Amino acid sequence: SLMAVTLHPLLRCFGFYRRYPLMFVTATAVAMAVNLSLPVTQHLLGLALDEVKAGVAVVRAPEGSMDLSRAWFWVGALMAFAVMRGLIQYVGTMLGMVLGQRLLHDLRDRVLIQVQRLDQTYHRKHGAGEIVTRTTRDSDKVRDAVIGGWRTLLETGLVVIGCLGVLFWYHPLLAAVPTGLVLIALLMFIQQARRMVMLDRAAGDAYDVVTQELTEGIGGVRVIKAFALENARIQRFQQAVDGFARLTRKSLSFASVRLPLPQMLVGFGHVWILWCGAKLVADGQLTVGELVASLMIITAIIFRVESVGRTIQTFAEASASAARIMELLDAEPAFEQGKADAPVTAWGLRLREVSVRSPAGIMILDHLNLELVPGEVVALVGATGSGKSTLAQLLPRLADPDKGDVSFGNPRDGWINARDLRFSELRQRVQVVYQDSFLFSDTV
Question: Residue 30 phi/psi, 5° resolution?
């Protein structure tokens, strides 16, 4: 659809949540409950501290004994609150893990279905290594962003909003500077994300080369050994790995230098809370317990902003991977199958004015005409590159001619164009046995 085309590739990956709406809503609600309760915990600690300072939590009776009932109340309340948060967080973590595995399964399933759907032209252009990378490295990165990154971003947003809300509740001046620092840090993160996407895209392309070399090294090991090509292939693989490592180091170096800057900026909020909070306490506009709670709150914000840096990096890497996956999923076969049933009569073959050019534009088959009747045995003999394999690929429609028609049938019952037949029926009747074989991993 038009919406699917215009949406960012990573946003489109969030569409996999549609298969598990109840689990997604439950996980989101759990995350909201856990993280919004964090500033509540810090506020309760401030209240408890105020009661200790006011002599309410621990009271000395006239006879000299200590009344600790209020202190034990706060101990029990805080412990109960912590246990409740822990249990809810456990449920959220389990839901996130299950969602992550299901989403990764669906994504890889979609990739494999698309790989089987696309024609040989696409596979020759992109190679096995590139497709393997889409189902492994790229799918893992998308999973990390759509599950872990999304959850971290949601939790961070809730904690920061909740913490700043409590600071505003204590005193607007107390929250003014931390809010500005957080906004500036977010803008810095967003500006850095574009460069990180470009760097990870380059590293992903280099990883394609590594996977391709590894695939060929394993799949062609018999040929490599037969012609003593081990050293040459090892050298090519090492060059591919070195290229990938160089681009990966470049991406990591950029992230390690740039990401700490916004975190350091938000860290200045500690200074503001301590200075401004002390003045408010001196003026009687803030209690000591609220000042301590404010210091814990700004610490929580700083830790969360630090996680934003890692999350931005996760989303930047996943953005490049999602674009690569969607390029594969959006690809269309060079030709579509027909809808006609295969005739049950004996089949012969007829080619009329068939022409095929190579990707470089060289004419391989030039206005070829050929007719074979059922039962006839024919041998086509020619030098390497004369077009024998190209002609064989036209019969089961592994490729289509640039011009002309390939038809099946016989002169008595008539002919049907190969383009009009469904792939399954055509390829059940027409088989091509190539000189090279592929052995699947299975038992006899």
Answer: -65, -45
Query: 97 is written with which tokens?
Result: 């893990």
**C-alpha angle 184-189-190 in degrees, rounded to nearest 5:** 100
Angle at 188 between CA 182 and CA 189, to 5 degrees: 90
266: pLDDT strictly greater than 80? no
How many CB atoms within 10 Å of residue 190? Answer: 11
- Let me know the angle formed at the C-alpha of 182 by 181 and 185, rounded to the nearest 5 degrees: 85
Beta bridge partners of 363: 357
> Within 10 A of 93 (CB to CB), how many other CB atoms are there?
15
Q: What is the CB neighbour count within 10 angstroms for residue 73?
A: 13
State the Cα–Cα distance between residues 131 and 126, nearest whole angstrom. Answer: 7
Report pLDDT digits (tens) over 142-191. Answer: 888 887 777 777 777 777 888 888 888 888 888 888 888 888 887 877 77
Which residues are CB-neighbours of 88 under 8 A, at least 6 positions away? 30, 33, 34
Residue 6: which H helix or E strand, with range?
Answer: helix 2-6
Alpha-helical segments (H) within 259-287: 260-267, 269-282
d(CA 347, CA 416): 10
> If you average pLDDT over residues 216-239, what whole number do you get?
86
Q: Which long-range contacts (CB under 8 A, 24 or more apart) does 32-36 make?
A: 32/154, 32/158, 33/88, 34/85, 34/88, 34/89, 34/92, 34/155, 35/154, 35/155, 35/158, 35/159, 35/162, 36/158, 36/159, 36/162
Q: How many CA atoms lie within 13 A of 4 on its CB side?
A: 8
d(CA 340, CA 421): 5
Q: Which residues pair with 415 in a beta bridge?
A: 409
List the structure tokens of 425: 């029926």
What is the Cα–Cα distance from 171 to 101, expressed in whole angstroms? Answer: 45
User: Which residues pair with residue 210 across a beta bridge?
Assistant: none
Evaluate whether 39 touches 300 at the Cβ level (below 8 Å): yes
Predicted TM-score (pTM) of this structure: 0.62
Q: In a 10 Å sphere around its CB, with 0-12 CB exposed, 13-18 middle and 19+ buried, how is residue 365 labelled? A: buried
Label the pairing between strands 348-357 and 59-60.
unpaired
Hey, which residues does 416 pair with through a beta bridge?
408
